[in-house]
Amino acid sequence: MPEQHPLVQAIGPLIERLNAELVDPADARADDVPLEWDGKPVVAVRLPAKGGVQGLLAEVADELGGPLNELPRSEKQQAVLMLEARGAFEFRKSAEIVAEALGVTRFTVYNYLNRAR
Fold it and tell me: Would 96 be classed as within a structural domain?
């Protein structure tokens, strides 16, 4: 991905503010926004899931097959890792929100994150 391209430099602050991600056009998904310069693809923008942390929690719950607070511990750990990979912990108060959804303490969420690292 051409990180020094003027378009990429120009939209950098906006991408950061939106909590979005820049991806190579070859890796773009159908819901990514492709950006072109002089008719050639430069980069694609991957917007965060709708609904912030709550939206991400709903996605992960769907993927894991049920309410997060009813999952066994190993799947709760997996849920935390999935949420981290999707940027859930970039949002304010996200650890508390995730902990409540999982039915665990905030300390437990941090332990799951630290264990994976």
Answer: yes
